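User: Structure tokens for both sequences below?

Assistant:
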Amino acid sequence: MPQTGLARYRKLEVTELEGKLRSLPQAPLLVGEEGVRLSLAGAQGKAVLAMRGADFLLPMDGSPSTHILKPASGSFPDLVENEFFCMRLADALGIKVARVELGEAGAIGFLQITRYDRQEADDGSWERIHQEDFCQALGIAPELKYQEEGGPGLNDCFDLVRQRCDAPAPDVLRLFDAVVLNFLIGNNDAHGKNFSLIHEKGQTRLAPLYDLVSTELYPELSANMAMRIGRAKTANEVTSKDWRALFQGAGLGPAMAIRRMHKMANDARLRSSQLIKTAPMASEVLQIISSRAAAILALRVGN
């Protein structure tokens, strides 16, 4: 049993890992209810484990995990490939995201996510890096993570970054890019707990993105955006006036913001076409990206 200091782990054989992943919730009762949220549906059971080389380890006695595993969901086909593609696309666009890989344990496929809030010490042990999601940072109860239920809106998020981050200007731009990316891929579930601040070496910054999924692919999920753009509840309702409200909340000039959006829209179309081979189902996401990119490219400073 691997041990470092007080940390304790037990190695998991592939068959045991497969059993543990198979036992995670796969058919939540909420699925099928109109407008259910992905996070509330419990569609993705998560296993927190540690990895040393190619070995999966079960943390014991509160020892730090290093990876999160999300197995394939029977309720939402291709969800693993969906998130893998969206995360890889964000990375290809130069947006900081958690590292993701596809893996298998027997017959169970999974998304393997490297935790960015861990670091390896000189003695080989793993240490936790303090982070807090936006709901925690704003003192909002986690069950109120959606704006329509009393959770934070985008203006609250930009204000938080300006007030708490040591380098607010680049982090505001990173948050703005995240909003545009979620619009492009059709991620309506980007709520207050899906953004975090990370505290490291005496500095506070916006954490890498995670949980990037095109929820628009699943008609049984809510079409309402977790955080509105301007006054728009759904992506299809977003107008130039709503984008301008976002620019104002982010403290960005319209000309600069639109140039940045145009570049991301063009880059997203190109990069997503190149990444199709990594996830065959991504052709459906590409259709959403193409439509949303066209809407962004129609924006002009004067309209």
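Moving on to the next sequence.
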Amino acid sequence: MVSSKDIAKKAGVSQSTVSRVINNPEAVKKEKRDTVKKVMKELNYRPDSVARSLLSNNTNQISLISGTLNNPFFVESTQRIINIAYYNGFSVNVYFEEDFQHDTLYNNVFSQKTEGIILSSMYCNSLHFDELKNLGVPYIMFNRKHRNGGNFVELDNYQAGWLAGDYFISKGHSNIHWMGGELEKSTFHGRYTGFKDALQNHDIPVDAANFSITVQSPEVIEKEIERIISLPDSPTAIFATTDMIASIVLDVLNRKGLQVPRDIAIIGVDNTKALQHSAFNLTSIGIDENLGEIAIRHLIRMINEDKISEIQETLSCQLFERGTV
């Protein structure tokens, strides 16, 4: 069996360097890191997580609480989190928030021995936030955050809402409909506030009828879209506050014989790879990176450095022009 000593010898580095490449790659210069990874691949080396666990009395397991997998954002972020954790010697226990009541979900996760927790499920006013902080385990929230801060990585959701409203208006739209989830989630609250402010900045009246706040169930969203487009004064543009909602909007409009963007323009949020496909070509707001990937790298660094340092990142986003506006 190939050992880290074999890797070090062939790569011409110390065994401790090999260990850092596995556990804390950012601490190793890129040239040396690439050399070690190349040798690991050539020799088909995989870190022995069981042996490491026995020696260190650690589980080498991370707990992930993810949003629903009917949302491409969570499909892509879950995949990245699992892959990056694996190549850093960790396995991931995944929990999906739609599978449990919130109390049960958090009780299950918080009762397990784990090296760290990464989660996208936290509500702004969740009573479980203090419990999470008091576990004494490295943790990070991504996509959503609690009103009291903590460790998080997020989009600038206010900016995302502003960009959508401002861009639609620049294209001549004034009858614009906002579609999103519960405002108890920081993602939707920020996207709601930014969008409203953009409309008011252009002296466009803001009416409650132009906002659909629904649970994130495809069936519920579909019914709401059907209701909106059947209105006498139906909107000429829809701000779908996630790419998942945008995909449902596109599907409903297609089945109703409406063309995008000729009949209705659409903007999503998250810039997921799935919706960049030419079949959708969705104009979306987001970043070029994956939030889950950014968050798991921070978490692994916290675990390996054996300290919990505060991480609060709000990432500026941009609008990616494609074919739905």
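User: Anything stand out in the second?

Assistant: The longest strand covers residues 61-66.
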